[in-house]
Amino acid sequence: MMDLRTTRRGIPLTELGFGTAPLAGLFTPVSEEQAAGTLEAAWDEGFRYFDTAPHYGLGLAERRLGQALAGWPRDEVVVSTKVGRLLVPNPGGEDRMDDDGFAVPAAVRREFDFSRDGILRSFEESLTRLGLDRVDIVYLHDPDQHWEAASTTGIETLVELRDEGVVRAIGAGMNQSAMLTAFVRRTDIDLVLVAGRYTLLEQGALDDLLPAAAERGVDVVAGAIYNSGLLSRPRPAPDATYDYAPVPTDVRDRVVRLAEACEAAGTSLPVAATRFPLRNPQVVSAVLGLRSPEEVAEAVRRATTPIPGTLWPDLVESGLLDPREGSR
Q1: Residue 297 in domain
Q2: Residue 163: which domain range?
Q3: Angle between helices 60-69 and 116-130 (to 10 degrees)
Q4: H/E element holding 194?
Q5: For position 59, what pLDDT does the model report?
Q6: What HEC string does 122-185 produce?
Q7: Which residues pair with 222 in a beta bridge?
Q8: Among 78, 80, 81, which Cα is nearest to 4's?
């Protein structure tokens, strides 16, 4: 069984969490058989924390996860989903593909809604797709342009769900650390999911989010730890992306330098990238997006591979890692 870390709300999260976006056709299609086989492999390898969202494949990720959940003991699995994007009818959309990164028909479309009614509707529809009567964690999803609504009615509605016991913990999930820090400092949340801002490549969350979370007793889940795949191979692939866009030259050069330093120390870039966020005591899980049984097995291998003791100090000394990381 994979190691567990317990949140302040008493929720046990496996150190590696399973991110379901790839199983919903992120960039390329994934068959029903492959999705089911991948989720079963994850269960067999010890994953017990699964993260999903309506946004992923226009509900497909939740439906596929729900099919797997039907065969697992509910009390042994932790599920998080997200609210803030409603799925609404999209007449004519079934004849074209989704235009937001997923290889699925656009039979419905996303509509941001952080009102009380919108969040409750989103939550109920997620429960239906998942086949559950409760979930463990609910995040406000990407409220970047919706701070006022998300930080008031959004949080208030999640607190209501938490108080009713249909949710055990609440938070926000974003690709930036600044607004997450505002949520930590100003609202009654339990944890945050920060995507891409606390990775081996960049540690911007050290400037704001992680200190605030430590001060306020808020747990941190690290997502997108490969920076949309850039750190997932020993060297960046020619078609690699960074934040789901083409890789800037300076970023690619930095990744190559990181890879060379990892190799010189006797390890690999993907192993170091997998292990890095879990060094921080504020991080309760690192979520990986996986799309095949082979990727599941490789993720576990990376997470359990020892890191040479010289790696982190060497990366700090060469300017490839924030100096604050050198003392861990």
Answers
A1: yes
A2: 4-228+269-304
A3: 50
A4: strand 191-195
A5: 98
A6: HHHHHHHHHCCCCEEEEEEECCCCCHHHHHHHHHHHHHHHHHHCCEEEEEEEECCCHHHHHHHH
A7: 194, 286
A8: 78
Dihedral sign from CA coordinates of 115, 205, 184, 16: positive
Q: What is the pLDDT of residues 261-291, one digit of tens each?
A: 999 999 999 999 999 999 999 999 999 999 9
- As for how many domains the chain has, the answer is 1
- Provide the token pair at 157: 């509605």
Active-site residues, by number, are 56
User: Residues for the chain: how many in total?
Assistant: 328
pTM of the entire predicted model:
0.97
Please write the tens of the pLDDT for every residue from 167-200.
Answer: 999 999 999 999 999 999 999 999 999 999 999 9
Q: What is the CATH number of the domain that holds 201?
A: 3.20.20.100
CB atoms < 10 A from the CB of 323, how many? 11
Does residue 128 sit within a domain? yes
What the block records as the tokens of 247 is 């890789």
